[in-house]
């Protein structure tokens, strides 16, 4: 039986980890299925935004350490998919994490890989692998510091302490907080909002943000301009300007209209 599902409704794809008996911990087969699901999302022209969630009461407890003790081969290597599956992938479209329960260790790294994070009020983040000597090898040391700054990232990485939804919201780890059991509903509403906008412009602006790391300011500004010119050449901006001239967006109205 597959441990990962891919379902699309209109322009929103939902990728779900189905291993609730192990708190959605990721073994080798699940890592491959997760990567394949996001390759499917990237290739699906009708999917504009993806949501990643775990079945039941946990988002993901990280790598399946029990599988390692049961003889599963170590899958940490430089080439191919990442140990947790998609965390080396550079997608052209956004992904939102819908977090119920624990998103810890490699599960937190999966959440950090996503563009946005919606947490239930009762959800927890944390580098819980700290206590077992399991390293962060799915981008956690890089993305966490870039998201919340080195000092706060060091606090979480060195202590492995839990982070509640309210604290995650304060430090910029969470983008939205939802009532318990409503993370997917809130993430879907957010995804529909994002999916309703002109997609070429949205994706080019998103990529400019992601591509700036490692560039000088001058290079990043030039890259932004190149992305912007590509958007202008596609015709979306003229179409949007026409809608504006016809009255869209007046009196503070905001949305796809």
Oligomer kind? single chain
Secondary-structure element order, as H and E? EEHEHEEHEEHHEHEHHHH
User: Mean pLDDT, rounded to whole units?
Assistant: 94
What percentage of residues falls in helices of 4 or more residues? 40-55%
Strand content range: 15-25%
Q: Biggest sheet: strands, sense, closure?
A: 6 strands, mixed
Through-space gap between termini: 42 Å
Low-confidence stretches are none
The geometry reads as globular
Return the structural class.
Answer: alpha/beta
Total number of β-strand segments? 9
If helices are DSSP runs of H or I spanning 4 or more residues, what is the number of helices?
10
Strand order of the largest sheet: 1-2-3-4-6-9
The whole-angstrom Rg is: 19 Å
What tags apply to this protein structure?
257 residues, alpha/beta, six-stranded mixed sheet, three-stranded mixed sheet
Write the SSE topology.
Elements: E1 4-9, E2 12-17, H1 28-43, E3 49-54, H2 65-69, E4 95-99, E5 102-104, H3 106-113, E6 116-120, E7 124-126, H4 140-148, H5 150-159, E8 163-164, H6 165-171, E9 176-178, H7 183-195, H8 199-211, H9 217-234, H10 236-245
Helix pairs in contact: 3-4, 4-5, 8-9
Account of the 3D structure:
With 257 residues, the protein is an alpha/beta fold. The chain has helices at 28-43, 65-69, 106-113, 140-148, 150-159, 165-171, 183-195, 199-211, 217-234, 236-245; strands spanning 4-9, 12-17, 49-54, 95-99, 102-104, 116-120, 124-126, 163-164, 176-178. The strands form two sheets. The protein has a six-stranded mixed beta sheet with strand order 1-2-3-4-6-9, with helices on both faces. It has a three-stranded mixed beta sheet with strand order 5-7-8. Helix 2 (65-69) links the parallel strand 3 and strand 4 (95-99). Helix 3 (106-113) packs across helix 4 (140-148), helix 4 (140-148) packs across helix 5 and helix 8 runs antiparallel to helix 9. The N and C termini lie far apart (42 Å). The model has no long low-confidence stretch (mean pLDDT 94).
């Amino acid at each position: 039986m597959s441990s990962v599902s891919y379902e699309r409704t209109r322009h929103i794809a939902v990728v779900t980890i189905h291993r609730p008996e192990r708190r959605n911990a990721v073994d080798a087969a699940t890592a491959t299925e997760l990567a394949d699901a996001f390759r499917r999302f990237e290739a699906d022209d009708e999917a504009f935004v993806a949501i990643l969630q775990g079945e039941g009461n946990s988002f993901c407890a990280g790598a399946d350490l029990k599988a390692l003790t049961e003889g599963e081969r170590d899958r940490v290597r430089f080439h191919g998919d990442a140990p947790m599956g998609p965390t080396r992938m550079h997608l052209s479209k956004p992904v939102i994490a819908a977090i119920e329960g624990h998103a810890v260790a490699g599960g937190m790294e999966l959440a950090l890989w996503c563009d946005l994070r919606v947490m239930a009020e009762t959800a927890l983040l944390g580098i819980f692998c700290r206590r077992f000597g399991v390293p962060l090898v799915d981008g956690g040391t890089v993305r966490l510091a870039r998201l919340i700054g080195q000092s706060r990232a060091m606090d979480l990485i060195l202590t492995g302490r839990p982070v509640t939804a309210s604290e995650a919201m304060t430090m910029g780890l969470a983008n939205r907080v939802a009532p318990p059991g409503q993370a997917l509903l809130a993430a879907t509403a957010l995804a529909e909002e994002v999916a309703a906008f002109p997609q070429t412009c949205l994706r080019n602006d998103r990529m400019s943000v992601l591509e700036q790391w490692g560039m000088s300011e001058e290079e990043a500004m030039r890259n932004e301009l190149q992305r912007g010119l590509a958007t202008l050449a596609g015709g979306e901006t003229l179409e949007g300007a026409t809608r504006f001239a016809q009255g869209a967006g007046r009196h503070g109205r905001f949305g796809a209209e």
